[in-house]
Design goal:
Mean pLDDT: 92
Order of helices and strands: EEEEHEE
Number of domains: 1
Bound molecules: zinc ion
Largest sheet: 2 strands, antiparallel
Number of strands: 6
Strand order of the largest sheet: 1-2
Low-confidence stretches: none
Number of helices: 1
Length: about 50
């Protein structure tokens, strides 16, 4: 299964999926963005570490 990373927008097979703490929308993060601790921004405006 391939998903699009919410942070970098790339398609990835190696991802973590979790709900946004604010709106519950599913966020997807690829391994790369986890490793470099890239910030993610949800559609609702929430920014995470
Ligand atoms: Zn990414
Ligand atoms: Zn959100």
């Amino acid at each position: 299964m391939v998903k699009r990373c919410s942070t970098c927008g790339k398609l990835t097979k190696d991802f973590a999926e979790f709900p946004c703490p604010t709106c519950g929308e599913k966020l997807v993060r690829c391994k790369h963005c986890r490793e470099i601790r890239n910030k993610y921004v949800c559609a609702c405006g929430f920014e995470g570490p």
